[in-house]
Design goal:
82 residues, mainly alpha, globular
C-alpha cells in the first residue's frame, strides 16, 4: 500500500476504474480532510459535513467505471460543494 502514496492522481483514477481498493483508499486519505472543510464551511454542521464526505466517496466508488474525471481535486471539491 505504501507505494500508492507516490502515485499521482491520474494514476490513482486509472487504478480506481479497475476497482483497485487501495487506490480508492489513497484517494480518500488525500482528500477527505479537504472535502470535510469544504462541506463544513458551507453547512456549519459537523455531522452533515461528515455525511457529505461519505456520500461523495461512496458515489465515487459506485460510479468508478462510469465517471470521466479530468481533475480529481476539482471533481471532489465540486461534488462536496453541491
Amino acid at each position: 500500500m505504501r507505494e500508492y502514496t507516490s502515485y499521482n492522481n491520474e494514476t490513482l483514477l486509472k487504478l480506481l476504474a479497475k476497482s483497485d481498493e487501495y487506490a480508492f483508499t489513497e484517494i480518500y486519505e488525500r482528500f477527505h480532510k479537504t472535502l470535510f472543510a469544504i462541506a463544513y464551511n458551507r453547512l456549519k454542521e459537523i455531522q452533515e459535513a461528515e455525511d457529505i464526505v461519505h456520500d461523495v466517496f461512496a458515489s465515487l466508488w459506485v460510479n468508478r467505471t462510469k465517471v470521466e474525471v479530468k481533475s480529481l481535486e476539482n471533481y471532489l471539491a465540486v461534488a462536496a460543494k453541491y
